[in-house]
Amino acid sequence: MTTRRHFMGQSAAAASALAFPLVGGAQPKPVKVGVLHPVTGALAYSGQQCRMGAQMAIDDINKAGGIKSLGGAKIEAMLGDAQSNPQAGIAEIEKMNEAGVSAVVGAFASAICLATTQAAAKYNLPHVVDVGVADQIVERGLKNTFRFGPGYKKSAEVAVASLHALNTAAGKPARTVMIVHEESLFGTGTANLLAKELPGYGYEVKEIIKHANPTRDFNNIALRIKQVNPDILIPANYYNEYALLVRTLQQQKITPKAICSVLGGAASSYKFVKEFPEAANGIIDCNHWFNPRDKRSAELKKRVEAQGQFFSYEVFMTYTAMMLLADAIERAKSPDRAAITDALASSKFANHIMPYGPTQFVNGQNMGAQPLMTQVQKGDIKVIVPRDYREAEPIFPLKG
Question: Could you list the residue range(s) of the whole structural domain that residue 256 is in?
């Protein structure tokens, strides 16, 4: 016979189980997150670096207790390969949606991000863009899309203003510019922005050369650079092409007064500096860069190097993008996509190693995001602009 006291006891036990679902060693359900990058194909190196950054962030989040507002739920990565092309990226978004991921982080290249964010929007799937710099990504009114880093318009504006400041301080020895860019959305968009910005500062853009991606021979382009003889060469390409272009210039003894990149694929790369120190020496780059004054930057760099890898912008951009997402899930107190989207939109995320300050999204773009200007000096990469983050005095021009 069930007594009232026995029934009340059962009710209390049930209420307790609902309030404290972890009693008895049960673990909360993990939060599934898509990690989507081009880990095969022409962009494989960058994609693999991005994936490493995402996985390091997930490890750190989980070791620190997971998503505390969800009872310590762990983040579980669903890895996707965009195969260095937009269509493969779209196919991976479809798989991730079917698997029930709560959000996606990726997908490195602008053209891929443009496709994956659009595909994710069909499912109201929040998509945090880690690197893709094309401003079209955040200009289509997609409520699901959030880019933590700066776009190429911001990067081009900062680059040209900073370059002009260096040139002015040196007595304006540089007056002519040549741009060499890869053919996709990233390179073409960056080149177009630079071509508009530079004349306003009094520079003559002598020529703009577009090349295929991939390109395995820059001899003809190098010869053209030699003929035009610009004071400043501005490359805008991914890692492999950037490294090969600069090495070809070195082999042919072509030395502009400055090589100044905007979002250069290799210029701010410790891998490039280590493998080709002479070709890299003196190169200036306006690019994604960590806050060198934050000791956590050096700590993360050491951890990456302990794995035999290089601390490239892909690593720390995707690491911080994943941290931004985890902060949003924490505040959303839910794996629900709509709740996470709302939490991202109202984000004030500031616990990061980037020189951005607190996050503030307007139409999906973090308004505080900014690139830093670096220069390869004595086998290392040092911030030269702005002064707040400066680690070394700039050397400009490289030749008289």
Answer: 153-287+373-389
CB-CB contact of 36 with 104 (8 Å) = yes
- Mark whether 144 and 157 lie in a shared domain: no
Cβ neighbours, 10 Å, residue 289: 22
State the amino acid at position 349 in one-letter form.
Answer: F
> Is there a single domain that holds both residue 380 and residue 249?
yes
Q: What phi and psi values does residue 88 have, to the nearest 5 degrees?
A: -65, -35
Domain total in the chain: 2
What is the C-alpha to C-alpha distance for residues 116 and 121, in angstroms, rounded to an integer? 8
CATH of residue 144's domain is: 3.40.50.2300
* Residue ranges for the chain with pLDDT beneath 70: 1-25, 400
Tell me what pLDDT residue 25 has: 62
- The model's pTM is 0.91
Q: Are 374 and 384 in contact (CB under 8 A)?
A: yes
Whether residue 302 lies inside any domain: the answer is no
Could you tell me if residue 213 is inside a domain?
yes
